[in-house]
Write a structure and sequence with these properties.
The chain is mainly β. The protein has one domain (66-369): Neuraminidase (6 Propeller). The chain has one helix and 32 strands. A five-stranded antiparallel β-sheet has the order 1-25-24-21-20, with no helix packed on it. It has a four-stranded antiparallel β-sheet with strand order 4-32-31-30, with no helix packed on it. A hairpin with a 4-residue loop joins strand 24 and strand 25. It is globular and about 45 Å long.
């Protein structure tokens, strides 16, 4: 199923108070199959304060999943700073970690950035970020790491205020250790994602200044001299706290949630942007909704792995699941050692490094065990 101009049907959350989340997903998928909802982009996002977007209809049957990689885990010390909902990327065989929450106030207070070199098992403190940030989209291109949007704390205050979304875009050069400002997003965004395909950065989804309402905006910036972001076809299903993966010229937007904190409802959906055809399609959904695996979603041997995350507010998952784009199917791939949400992960050599999340410091090294 693919389209250029489409969006989801929505319904009020307060009408669903007596229905469990799992029952809701089952009922909605059955309803979509029977009724065959047409999807229109007449409404690119919910305009009410608390709402639930119905999941997209996946009409193509899935093929048998091929066995995924599993992981042999070991504890490997701690990060210099306990944090959650940080941003991370791998560049030049090092794991770079930026910002995040560092205490229970959920106000960004740190501009701290660090790198981890598994070859020497050493952490290095980097030049500070421009602002205390979390919930930024992140992408890497060689020795340059890009951060877009985010939730920030106002700099310089002993008790900083929380700013729910910004339009700022920054790049960090890992060789020179320098920060530089990029063309701003068209509007402030937090909890969206950033992806690189060719010479284009794509920013997708998230929330605006109202953190309870997801937006489906999709913008791109040409890194070869582009000065403004151009609008692209919206996400069919607006969500925040999504997972992102880039593979074979496509952007995979997996899971995420509608709402925020006590109102959140996680999504099991897979939304796929084809950069060649310029269209969206949907893949086989996960068995359950999952968000807050944003920084711990990796492509390994042609499959997309999600490490931990959450299905419900104030819960954490230990499960690892793998999506195979070739067979459009999901499989379980074991567990991380401790249930975590909002952690970060990176693939370096034959190991996955998983750390932070749920405001923790432990570092786990997962050796790849191929079937």
């Amino acid at each position: 199923m693919s389209w250029n101009d489409s969006c989801s049907v929505t319904m009020r959350r307060d009408c669903l108070e007596e229905v469990s989340v799992k029952q809701l997903w089952v009922a909605l998928f059955a309803l979509l199959v029977v009724v065959g909802y047409s999807i229109s982009q007449a409404a690119s996002g919910c305009t009410q304060t608390h709402c639930v977007h119905l999941p997209l209809l996946h009409t193509e049957g899935t093929r048998q999943a091929t066995p995924p990689i599993t992981f042999r885990w070991a504890v490997n010390g701690s990060t210099p700073l306990a944090r959650s909902e940080a941003m991370a990327a791998v560049a030049n065989n090092k794991l770079y970690i930026f910002g995040g929450y560092t205490d229970g106030t959920t106000i960004p207070k740190t501009r701290d950035a660090v790198s981890y070199d598994p070859a020497t098992n050493r952490w290095t403190t980097l030049p500070q970020m421009p602002r205390p940030m979390t919930h930024s989209g992140i992408a890497v291109d060689g020795d340059t790491i890009y951060l877009a949007g985010g939730v920030v704390g106002s700099s310089g205050d002993s008790e900083p205020d929380k700013i729910p979304a910004i339009d700022e875009v920054w790049r960090f050069n890992v060789e020179s250790g320098t920060w530089a400002k990029m063309p701003s997003l068209p509007e402030p965004r937090g909890a969206g994602e950033l992806a690189l395909i060719g010479t284009y950065l794509h920013f997708l989804g998230g929330t605006g200044e109202d953190r309870y309402v997801s937006v489906g905006d999709h913008w791109r910036l040409n890194l070869n001299g582009g000065q403004t972001w151009e609008r692209m076809p919206n996400l069919p299903l607006p969500l925040n706290h999504i997972s992102k993966a880039v593979f074979n010229g496509k952007i995979y937007i997996i899971g995420g949630q509608e709402g925020h904190n006590e109102t959140l409802v996680t999504s099991p959906t897979v939304q796929i942007w084809d950069s060649v055809t310029g269209t969206w399609s949907v893949g086989a959904p996960m068995s359950h909704g999952r968000s807050h695996a944003t920084g711990a979603t990796l492509v390994i041997d042609g499959k997309i792995y999600l490490f931990g995350g959450q299905e419900f507010h104030r819960t954490s998952l230990a499960t690892i699941i793998a999506y195979d784009p070739q067979t459009d199917s999901w499989a379980e791939a074991g567990n991380i050692p401790i249930a975590r949400h909002s952690g970060v992960a990176g693939l370096i050599g034959n190991n996955v490094i998983y750390t932070t999340g749920s405001t923790n410091r432990q570092v786990f090294i997962g050796e790849l065990v191929r079937p």
